[in-house]
TrEMBL record:
NCBIfam families linked to this entry: PRK13922.9-3 (NF010532)
Protein known as: Cell shape-determining protein MreC
InterPro entries xrefs: Cell/Rod_1 (IPR042177), Cell/Rod_MreC_2 (IPR042175), MreC (IPR007221), MreC_beta-barrel_core (IPR055342)
One Gene Ontology CC term in the entry: plasma membrane
Length: 285
């Protein structure tokens, strides 16, 4: 108490002056309409400023939840776009053919936890593994195009061979407009460019043509975006087109991927194994 009394004794005049100033300001803003309007405007501006930051904070807190919703939506869209197999039923020749859509592919979403693009053969790791249904030889798609093929898995993680691999990556690809297909490979010199070979030179090509997966393997569905033609010339060694394809997906910037699960892979593999057995039997004879 004595301490407070000493402070009042030393600073009494200053405190009394500040009290008078506060009373004067209050009287000015309560008795004059112009000052009241100015004060109301300033108060509204401060409230808007604070409310904006509060709204941004709330939006940030909801960002993870919204991202999960978008991932689920993308997964559903991919399954709807690529997951259907359309085949013609065997019918009598005088009857009209009918189309029956059946689910062939499902998608497993995942995040990349490690990635490389500057090696001769590149890899990335995703946070999905055996317990999530991921197995070797499954294709991996990014939001803008193909990304790679699973080569190994643990319970919770998978190692993926990137499309940017010189020695270990061959992808069946097709020119969307022309309909011709070939083999897509990477030459190791540019992380944005792959090369499509085995397309006959009489096939018409234009810069900007779309290149997609052709669906002639059990790894990728038909029609998945790969990129666009960036240039082309005749390969003097083969006589076929050497087509430069600019990837639609920036491999050094991907975060989210979808693993493609072929629901009919075992049935396809079973019939392919019969061919291997036939060849082996013919060689033995």
């Amino acid at each position: 108490m004595a301490f407070i009394i000493r402070i009042l004794e030393k600073n009494g005049l200053l405190l009394f002056f500040l009290l008078l100033q506060i009373i004067a300001v209050v009287l000015i803003f309560t008795r004059n309409s112009m000052q009241r309007s100015w004060l109301a405007a300033q108060t509204a501006a401060i409230n808007s400023f604070v409310s904006g930051y509060i709204d941004e904070g709330a939006s940030y807190l909801q960002l993870k939840q919204e991202n999960e919703k978008l991932v689920a939506q993308n997964k559903a869209l991919m399954e709807a776009l690529y997951g259907k197999e359309f085949s013609q039923k065997a019918t009598l020749i005088h009857k009209k053919d009918t189309l029956d859509g059946t689910q062939t592919y499902s998608m497993i979403d995942g995040d990349i936890v490690f990635n490389s693009i500057n090696r001769k053969d590149n890899y990335f790791t995703i946070n999905r593994g055996k317990i999530h249904g991921v197995m070797p030889k499954m294709g991996v798609i990014a939001p803008q195009g193909i990304a790679g093929i699973v080569i190994n898995t643990t319970d919770e993680y998978a190692l993926v061979q990137s499309v940017l691999s010189v020695n270990k990556m061959r992808i069946n690809a097709a020119l969307k407009n022309a309909g011709y297909f070939g083999t897509l490979t990477w030459k190791g010199d540019n992380a944005r460019i792959m090369h499509l070979a085995d397309v006959p030179k009489y096939v018409p090509i234009a810069v900007g043509d779309t290149v997609i997966t052709d669906g002639k393997s059990a790894i990728f569905p038909k029609g998945v975006m790969i990129g666009r033609v960036a240039g082309y010339e005749v390969d003097t060694k083969t006589g076929y087109w050497d087509i430069s394809v600019e990837l639609s997906e920036k491999m050094g910037n991907i975060r989210k991927v979808y693993v493609v699960r072929n629901l009919k892979k075992e049935k396809i593999q079973k019939i392919q194994d019969t061919l291997k057995a036939t060849i082996k039997r013919e060689n033995d004879e």
